[in-house]
Amino acid sequence: MKRLARASGAFLAAPAASRRAWYHGAVQRAEVQDPVPENLDTTPAEKKLNPVPRPEDVRFDPARNLEEYHGLNGGQILEKKLREYGVTHIFGFTGGAILPVTDAFYGSPIKFINNASEQCSGHMAEGFAKTGGGLTTGIAMATSGPGVTNLVTALQDALTDSVPIIAFVGQVPTGSVGTDAFQECPTIDITRPCTKWNYQVRRIEEFPDVIDKAFYMAHSGKKGPVLVDLPKDIMLKLLDNDTGYKNVDHIVPTLVPHRYKKIPKLDVIAELINGAKKPVIIAGQGANDAMDEVREMMDKFGIPTTTTLHAMGLVDEMHPMALKMLGMHGAAYANFTVQEADLIIALGYRFDDRTTGNLQHYAREAKKAERHNKGGIIQIEIEHKQIGKVVKPTHHVLGDVKETLTQLLPLLNNDTDRSDWHKEVQGYKAKYPLKWRPCEDPEQIKVQEVIEEMNTYLLETDKAKDVVWSTGVGNHQMMCAQFVTWRWPRRMLSSGSLGTMGVGVPYATGGQIARPDLMAICVDGDGSFMMTANDIGTMAKYGIPVKIALMNDFRQQMVHIWQTIYFEQRYLITENVNPDFVKMGEAFGIKAMRVDTKSGLKAGIKEFIDYKGPVICDFRVQPDMCTPMVAPGAALDDMILEPEEIMRLEANPNNVPG
Predict the structure, then answer these.
(1) Is 323 helix (H, G, I), strand (E, B) or coil?
(2) Which of 370, 372, 502, 563 is the most exposed place for a label (fewest CB within 10 A)?
(3) pLDDT per position as a tens digit, 273-285
């Protein structure tokens, strides 16, 4: 018998009655508790985690599956399996090929959220998984053909940002595959590059095993998306446990060792950290499950810490050693600190190009220290292909960040005096704060001003601890990263690697469903919002109280700035023609308001934040440039700090970001 992991997999081996009893308690709400440091004065009103089984702890048991699911069709098998995994919501859009599956959810306690499009379904599943944390899986469902192709963007987004979602999609009957039948497409070929694993079910007897593997693959190692293709005729068949079927090897997942008894080379790495005079931690998304360990490393051993976009809040940004986000539009003081550090400790971070600048000039002091055996770069990463892919580390650990730090921290000491380094870093923070320039017209408002005022109001009213934010992609995204005070991980839902416009609303809606105890605020740009604006109908239909703060400057401002710099101010297709967003919101039956003056900003934000249901606010903002900015080809510490400095850049189209 093959197993997905260890003894706690006994859950699926328990009698059916026991599993049903567990299920009726678990499906009420599977909320995930964000870890919160004891030294904070306020604690989020989190809810207790129900015992949803971890996918890596579930037994892979084909014999048990055949017995348990005998006599059920494909839809019934899927509905029952999802309940066993503690799934509470599915996000999808139906159609002919998937109807045999969706029909099984009639009367099911699993809630089926009907989106405006399959792309929104995929992104909403992502938002659900991102907010829930390591134990939560987003489930998307779509029909064949265009239903599948509409999901591709969400799958690629989940792949590049390591989000565990599973898409169950319809397919034409097996006898029609390859005949260009109505709504047929080569699903497996199309989605292979944008999933961790995809599979077309060939016979009903293997379907329960395929579902087990789907959950395992979504969560094992580096998390990501999985797709299961469901031919219509296979889903209509009944599973017969007397066919002689035995699980074949290609279904059995390759098991990933979950825990090292002892991680090699940690004594060498500890010696390097203990001797470093100017160390810095760069924490990426892969460190989000190690909040306590990272914070201990920062605080106890005096190591300044910066994060990527997806790890904001991993360290409390009110801590003096916290440096906010680094990179192209990160804090200048974070970039200076990284460049001046003699040792870079990369935790769950893959050295993305937006965070390194020109690699020839990256980590100058760390590379110099490496040559003298007094520093360098340490990389702790769970995915083998990311080790040394962009930057060659001095030492590396292939493994989970939390497990590695658990063994590393006892080896660290405070024998090296870092007081001068701390003064240097605080000097950067004092000299290069994040800032913005007010409009010449005192009544006009800017994106940064709106976000800063929202952040201030939330902090003053003690509501900041109970907020999850989402963004689209563009200037507003970076400004939200800059001017919100991030104190808890997984509170910023944003598309990082792929940079997908249109994710803001579905991310926030999925996040709100996953965490109804939190307030979901979507900060979106008008261009990004319009790409999935139809999904505010989903908010209205289900009464999901998402708050959409629409930064409306009638322009794709980030691209407009690039045209200013690199294309000699030849502006083309960056001006937006927008509807009246207040009337649009009202047409969907949700509260809608507008703020367009500074004198009305505070009152408008209070009304917006305090409203209990779904609401959209059209903030009429003036276009601005997001600074700091590391121009393409420039070193990480060679930043544009003021908007007028952009004219010193060469008008070279080869340097356009992206």
Answers:
(1) strand
(2) 372
(3) 999 999 999 999 9
Catalytic residue among 28, 67, 182, 583: 182
Convert the pLDDT of each residue in 220-252 to its tens digit: 888 999 999 999 999 999 999 888 787 666 676
Which of these is catalytic: 81, 232, 429, 465? 232
- 64's enclosing H/E stretch is helix 62-68
119 classed as catalytic? no
Annotated catalytic, 182? yes
Burial 14-23 (b: 16+ CB within 10 A, else e): eeeeebeebe
> Quick one: average pLDDT of 341-363?
95
The single residue of 2, 111, 112, 183 carrying the catalytic annotation is 183
Options 235, 558, 625, 629, the catalytic residue = 558
Given a contact cutoff of 8 angstroms between Cβ atoms, the answer to whether 491 and 313 are in contact is yes
Predicted confidence (pLDDT) at residue 109 exceeds the cutoff of 50: yes
Instruction: For residues 553-576, give the mean pLDDT.
Output: 82
Q: 0.90 cut: is pTM over it?
A: no
Q: What is the pLDDT of residue 405?
A: 96
Tell me, what amino acid is at 330? G
Q: Quick one: tokens of 457?
A: 């109001």
Q: Is residue 411 pLDDT above 70, yes or no?
A: yes
User: 46, 68, 118, 452: which is the annotated catalytic residue?
Assistant: 118
Closest of 197, 219, 221, 222 to residue 210, by C-alpha: 197
Rounded alpha-carbon distances, angstroms, from residue 391 to 127, 362, 368, 384, 498 = 30, 9, 15, 13, 20
Helix (H) or strand (E) holding 379, with range, is strand 376-381
Count of residues for the chain? 658
138-170 CB burial, b ≥16 within 10 A, e <16:
bbbbbbbbebbbbbbbbbbbbbbbbbbbbbbbb
Contact status, residue 340 vs residue 278, Cβ threshold 8 Å: yes
Quote the pLDDT of residue 176: 75
Residue 151 makes CB contacts below 8 A (sequence gap 6+) with 118, 119, 121, 122, 140, 142, 167, 169, 191, 227
pLDDT, residue 9, reads 32
| Count of CA atoms in the C-beta half-sphere (13 A) of 254 | 3
CB 535 within 8 A of CB 505: yes
pLDDT > 60? residue 26: no
Is 647 catalytic? The answer is no
Active site residue 232: yes
Reduced to 3 states (helix: H, G, I; strand: E, B; else coil), residue 322 is strand
Report yes or no: 588 and 601 within 8 Å, Cβ to Cβ: no
Q: In what order do the strands lie in the sheet with 343-347?
A: 322-325, 305-307, 279-283, 343-347, 376-381, 395-398
Give the residue carrying structure tokens 């680094």: 326
- What is the rounded CA–CA span in Å between residue 529 and residue 472? 7
Q: Is the pLDDT of residue 560 over 90?
A: no
Distance CA 146, CA 155 (A): 14
Backbone angles phi, psi at 630, to 5 degrees: -95, 110
* 605-622 tens-digit pLDDT: 999 999 999 999 999 999
Average pLDDT over residues 458-467: 94
pLDDT value for 18: 34
Place of tokens 């510490």: 637
The two three-digit tokens of residue 97, written as one number: 């090929």
398/54: higher pLDDT: 398
Q: Running DSSP on this structure, what letter comes out for residue 88?
A: -
Q: Using alpha carbons only, give the angle 59, 61, 62 rounded to the nearest 5 degrees.
A: 155
Distance CA 326, CA 558 (A): 18
Distances (CA, A) of 378 to 349, 387, 388, 391, 416: 11, 10, 10, 10, 18
